[in-house]
Amino acid sequence: MAYIDQIKEKAKQNLKTIVLPESEDERTIRATAQILKEGLAKLILLGDPDQIRSDADKYGVDVSGATVINPADDPQFDTYADSFYELRKAKGMTQEQAREILSTNKTTYGVMIVKSGKADGLVSGACHSTADTLRPALQILKTAPDAKMVSAFFIIDVPNCPYGENGTFLFADSGLNQDPSSEELAVIADSSAKSFEALVGAPAKVAFLSHSTKGSAKHALVDKVTAAVEIAHRDYPSLVCDGELQLDAAIVPEVAASKAPGSPVAGYANVLIFPNLDGGNIGYKLAQRLAGADAYGPMLQGIARPVNDLSRGCSASDIVGVVALTAVQAAN
C-alpha cells in the first residue's frame, strides 16, 4: 500500500474537520470533492456559497457535503472579531482593524475557526505565500507549549525506492527557516523525528546533511552542521541521529560503509535535515520533479493546532494528501 493510502486509512478512522479558505482556486474545489468522496475529513470551505456551487458545477464535481461559511454573513463573525482583537490589542490592533482583517483575509478567518474549536486544522497556500499562512497561525494559535520554534517539512514518497522507509522520507526545513543556526537545526531535527514517527509510524533515523562526510571538507558551513549534531546529542539524547553526512552516505548502505563506518544512521536515514532552506527547497523539488516523488507540504510543526501550507505549484491531489496528513496530525 502506498504511503499516502496508509495516511488516508488513518484519517478515515478518526474524522477531523479541516478548513480550506482558498475556495476561489479550482484545485481546492476539485480536492474538496475528492476528499468528500473518499471520506477523509469533514470540510469547511470559506467563501460565497453561490460562487462555490457555480464553480463546482463548472468543474463537474460535487462539493455539497462541505460546510460553506461566508465570513460576510457568518453569525460568529462578531465573536471572532472580538476574540481576534483581544489576542492582538497588546500589539496595537484596534477593533476596527480586527474586523477589517477578518472581512478581507479568509486564511485569518479560518484560523479563528480553528481557535474556536469548531475545526481541527487548516490547509492553505495554493494561491498564497507561506507567510500569509503562517502569520495568522502564529498570531492566533501561537506555538505549542513544548515547542521551541516553528519549522516546516515535506513528506517525500519516492516510487520504487529502496532507501529511507521504503522510499518515504521527511525533509526539513524545506519551507520556512532560511538559515537556521546550529541550535535551531538541532531543534528542527528533534521536531522532525517526532513528526516522522507520528505520520509514518516507523522509528526516525536522522541525518544532518552537508557537502562533507565526517570531516572530508573544512568550511564554516560544515562547522555549523557538526555543531548541530553535538547539540542534538547533548539536548536530545534519545534522538537517533548522526552527521555531518553527504546525501549518498546518509541513505545508501554501500556508500555509508565506506564513508561513515559505524554510524548508527548512515545508509538508513529516513529524516533528512538540510543545512539551510536553499538545500531543503531544492532537494524536495529535485525529488518531486526528477524522481517522480509525491511531495506533501510544507507541513508546519511547532504550532499549537495543525495549520499546514501548500506549494503554489501544488496539484489537487497534493491538497488531498496534505488534508489527510493534517487530519492525522490533529488526531495525534
What would CATH call the class of the largest domain?
Alpha Beta
Percent range of helical residues = 40-55%
Structural class: alpha/beta
Please indicate the count of domains: 2
Shape: globular
For the largest beta-sheet, the strand count, sense and barrel status come to:
6 strands, mixed
Secondary structure tally: strands: 11
Q: Whole-number radius of gyration?
A: 21 Å
User: Beta-strand percentage?
Assistant: 5-15%
- Work out the helix count: 13
Average the pLDDT over all residues and give the rounded result.
93
Indicate the CATH architecture of the largest domain.
3-Layer(aba) Sandwich
Regions with little confidence, pLDDT below 50 for 5+ residues: none
Helix-strand pattern, N to C? Answer: HEHEHEHHHEHEEHEHEHHEHEEH
The CATH topology of the largest domain turns out to be Rossmann fold
Q: How are the strands of the biggest sheet laid out side by side?
A: 8-7-9-6-5-10
Distance between the termini: 22 Å
